[in-house]
Amino acid sequence: MRRNGGARAAARPPRAAARPPRAAARPPRAAAGIAARGLKAAAFAALASLPATASGRISVGDLDRAARARAAILEIDVPAARDILKDVDPADTALALERGRLAIYEGDCDGAAAILGRPDLAATAEGAALGDIARGCARGTAATVVVNDEARGVWVRLQDDDDRALVPLLVDVAARVRDVLARDLGVELLRPLRIDLVRDQFTLSAMTGLPEEAARTTGTVAIAKWGRVTMLSPRATPNGYPWLDTLAHEMTHLALSRGTRDNAPLWLQEGVAKREEVRWREPDPLDDVPSSDALAFVGLQKGLGRPLDKLGPSIAMLPSAEEAMVAFAEVASFIKYWTRESGDDALPRLLVRLKEAGSDADLERAIAEISGADLAAWDKRWRAYLATVPSNLPPDLAPGGDMPHRQEVGRRVRLGQLLHDRGHYAAAAIQHARAQALAPNEPAVRCFLAASLLASGERASAAPLVEQVEDVHSRHGRWWSLHGLLHGGEGPGADRAFSAGIELDPLSPEVACEEKLPPELPGDPIRSALCEAARRAAP
Q1: Were 116 and a residue from 29, 131, 353, 410 both cysteine, which residue would form a disulfide, CB within 3.0 to 4.6 Å?
Q2: Do the Cβ atoms of 119 and 91 come closer than 8 Å?
């Protein structure tokens, strides 16, 4: 799962889309009702508890077939699972349960709901839980649009047809991420990769099983579960979010589930996903701002952190956004430290070992044999390392901190926006300048001021506000589009800046249209279509 790590927006007060940690957690992994380790034993135990079939009993052979099907499904090997379940007796309860699970993984929510609606399956805890997911998914995907790029092996289902312009970018990045994961983790995601793009957190919750309240509390924008990535449309948040990094993050979860048969503990899942979410693209100067090391250290010092192996079933289920922020920083920092000390080949080797892990002891043994120490020893070394890193975080970046003068900044921004919307650009610039003086590192405030100055004809005064990325504390889509306009011109620098903006806020008209005014469109056909979609969606 990934939280909204998007830009801070000063529009609803100055940190409107207050910047959580860049990345998400994910809900309880893979299949409902089955423990992460001891897969086959757990599968037999769960299946043996099901009611008898019409013949009055479930044979050992049937249970073995159902367990093999479940293992293939959790490994996201849909073709293998489909082959195992071919020509099964429809009356067999254990196999019917796996047929319903497989339908969910294949994206056939209506078919899954029909199978799992049987009284004998609905009477079991697991069947009822899967049935709820199937019905929520069926409701969320009614009248959706499916775009299937068979050549690149990416299947995208859109709840809103207006998001179709996003699909070429989703497909391109998904294909690139698939290659990066194969290189970094030694795991090949099978085709098609399934992506659901939904309108709101209510649908995100219904289709994945994450409680909606938890999603809202921690700012969850995407979840990797049921063999696919389900993520919010960027139009669902006021200033977008890092939607393409989010896709990479969630694809990493799918790769880890496939590579370990869902035996990876939460700290490993989230730490590796944080590591991989940016490796598909060129580094951004703000990728590690604030430093995950410093954030983890300060959060632990303030009592907001937890032991790595005590994070609970999901970071998305933590009680506050601050605790989720620190948890993400902890796992990101730890994995960065562990891979640096153990070598890049340690991760793929660990995944191979985890695939056959049957207990926590197997996990501990694998870590020790691959890296020379168990988790407790590595945790002690990592904490000692954290104590050596610089940890003086600005108030707006520290866990539990806040922007100074927040209310005054918000008041000035709102007043400036009202003046700007009425064409009083010089007066708007005065208000935005006062806000920027109070929040000098807030990119959204800089953008409001730069836009008002540009509208007033003061291009030279606007340019320094979006010149140096080191002057801001978070990634913001419009900061990059204005940077491209004022410092890139028509060359490669502008193209990189506009791409960076689209990676963060693709449905903002200014960002998607590269700061061009109607009816002018970007020259690239994909960006031109995105610009038109953004203008249609604008209020």
Answers
A1: 131
A2: no
